[in-house]
Design a protein that fits this description.
The protein has 25 helices and twelve strands. By secondary structure, the protein is an alpha/beta fold. The strands form three sheets. Strands 9-10-11-8-12 form a five-stranded parallel β-sheet, sandwiched between helices. Strands 2-3-1-4 form a four-stranded antiparallel β-sheet, sandwiched between helices. Helix 12 links the parallel strand 9 and strand 10. The radius of gyration is 36 Å and the shape is elongated. The chain starts with a helix and ends with a helix.
């Protein structure tokens, strides 16, 4: 019955309410009221360049103090049907005094009652910046004295017309930048925080619910509903600390780590695992799943088992894109994992099975879903400035420092193989013991690597000396070097040649080429002279050919060693 009455009365009275009345109205509410306060403050304070004063008031014992006769008269002013008036009168008079807190009709009655105050403040006093939610209201102005005078005028109106009083202990005039406590939040010019009382109450209630869950007094579903409700409150303010300290252990998360750089992706995964172990020291609920070898249903059943001591699980899923059935089943469950309290890391980094990783088609449905639903991070292979910066940071972690020629020598000797680079930096740091690492140290400590000979091979190709180029290739293969690794190094060197050749063709001088290429000066110097041996179109054809060979090898269409030999003879 109350809902039926509300629907009829709302359509009659809502049009009589001012815009900035926010209680019990469609498309209004507490959060819009707080946003409106912030909008008003920016206008009064001229984008926070002038002082803005805020008068905040509260009606004393509002619902208990509502005069029933006055309320009935206000209803009669708009409702002319005697039977309807009699019904509403019976509802109001069924309470001995005032109105009780509770049903939806009472909330509308309360709004109608203070609608008279809204009209007085907006139309009589003509306060431009005024907003009210139930019995809490604010008035903003740049003049402190004006607001002080308004207190008396508002209190007189309430006494005389509505038999209400302002709460003497809940009236204040403050500068906006001091923080305005309104509707559970404290608003400042550039941020908003939760009221301390509200925050403490939320923390205590979550603790109590957690105990009830542990004692099986409430269900997990009921507990999760409570958590989601409080998170809804927190999302409207700056709440990082309370979310981290109180809620993080209850929140599920999907993390998607992917890309060709297996080293940095693995570092990130280790960082996540270390962070998990700091909180959950037992490590009993750290689970590794190789999707290539595991059935999805077995994994899912294991995942749904309640964790020991109600700990959050950390599940690391590897090789998901190498098992089509597992991939399809996971796609259906992605959102459910997000709604659990556990963490699922989908780890799909590396340049394909040959390098210990997975090839991912970015048009794949699961890939798109993970990008949408998960916290995703791509790890692409480093080059140029990014690679140099990584070397410097890695050296700093090992209390080492390279001079520029040494950095160039390291880059030239190893390229973007971060696994080897990290190991060589540690060796050099131990060798130099805090002293600056020089070029001769790099040359003495690091065994000449494949890239150096690859450059010689490219030089032979440029000189049209295919027999010498094939001899260099044979030397690599006899030494046990991986054909795919060799091909990736050809790709790296020819990419550098393409970048520099394009800049040369655009009439850039050498210093500009060094700057614009993003490559180390040492690498530019080695590559620059070779560019004259190739046309730009030749380099593009070679680069495309490398990618086609890479695809043919990985899809089993070509024998790796034979494909490399044909590549050299075909240039």
């Amino acid at each position: 019955m109350h809902h039926a009455i509300f629907r009829v009365l709302y359509s009659i009275f809502d049009k009589s309410f001012i815009r900035d009345s926010y209680s019990c109205r469609i498309n209004k509410g507490t959060h819009r009221a707080i946003n409106r306060l912030n909008d008003f403050a920016r206008k009064v304070g001229r984008n926070n360049t002038r002082t803005c004063f805020v008068l905040k008031c509260d009606v004393k014992k509002y619902f208990d103090s509502i005069d029933q006769e006055i309320l009935i008269d206000l209803l009669k002013n708009r409702i002319k049907d005697n039977d309807a008036v009699l019904l509403l009168t019976n509802i109001i008079k069924s309470f001995p005094k005032g109105l009780p807190l509770g049903n939806i009709t009472i909330q509308l009655f309360a709004n109608i009652y203070l609608g008279e105050l809204d009209k007085f403040i907006k139309h009589k006093i003509k306060a431009k910046y005024y907003a009210r939610y139930c019995d809490d209201f604010v008035i903003l102005d740049e003049n402190y004295t004006k607001l002080k005078i308004l207190i008396t005028a508002v209190n007189d109106f309430l006494n005389r017309n509505l038999k209400l009083h302002l709460h003497p202990n809940k009236m204040s005039i403050k500068k906006y930048h001091q923080g305005i406590d309104f509707l559970g939040y404290v608003s400042f010019p550039y941020f908003r925080i939760l009221r301390t009382k509200t925050k403490n109450r939320i923390i205590q209630k979550v603790r109590n619910k957690e105990i009830k869950l542990r004692d099986c007094i409430i269900t997990k579903k009921c507990f999760n509903q409570t958590i989601q409700s409080y998170l809804g409150v927190l999302k409207h303010c700056d709440s990082y600390k309370i979310r981290k300290e109180t809620f993080s252990k209850f929140l599920g998360m999907i993390i998607f780590l992917y890309g060709k750089d297996l080293y940095r992706a693995r570092e990130k995964l280790n960082e996540i695992i270390d962070g998990y172990k700091k909180v959950h020291k037992s490590g009993l609920n750290l689970i590794w799943i190789n999707a290539k070898e595991k059935d999805f249903r077995d994994f899912l059943n294991n995942f749904k088992i309640v964790s020991m001591f109600a700990e959050k699980k950390l599940v690391v899923l590897k090789n998901v894109f190498l098992n089509k059935k597992f991939e399809e089943d996971l796609l259906e469950e992605v959102k459910n994992f997000k709604n659990s309290k556990d963490i699922v890391v989908v780890f799909s980094a590396g340049g394909g099975p040959a390098s210990g990783g997975e090839n991912i088609d970015q048009r794949n449905k699961l890939f798109k879903e993970l990008k949408k639903e998960a916290k995703s991070q791509e790890f692409d292979l480093l080059s140029g400035v990014q690679l140099r910066n990584w070397i410097r940071k890695e050296a700093e972690k090992n209390n080492a420092k390279f001079d520029e020629p040494a950095e160039g020598a390291l880059l030239s000797a190893i390229g973007n193989d971060l696994w080897q680079t990290a190991n060589e930096i540690k060796k050099l740091a131990d060798y130099k013991r805090g002293k600056i690492i020089k070029k001769e140290d790099v040359e003495a400590m690091i065994k000449p690597r494949i890239e150096t000979d690859i450059f010689k091979t490219i030089d032979a190709i440029a000189s049209k000396n295919k027999s010498q180029a094939l001899a260099f290739l044979k030397k690599h293969l006899e030494a046990g070097d991986n054909p795919l690794q060799l091909l990736s190094m050809f790709a790296y060197q020819f990419r550098n040649l393409l970048v520099i050749k394009e800049l040369i063709e655009k009439q850039n001088q050498y210093p500009a080429i060094v700057k614009k290429s993003g490559l180390h000066p040492f690498v530019v110097k080695k590559t620059f002279y070779l560019c004259n041996q190739f046309s730009f179109d030749e380099l593009k054809k070679i680069y495309r050919k490398i990618f086609q060979i890479d695809l043919d090898i990985k899809t089993g269409k070509a024998d790796p060693e034979l494909a490399l030999e044909l590549f050299i003879t075909g240039i």
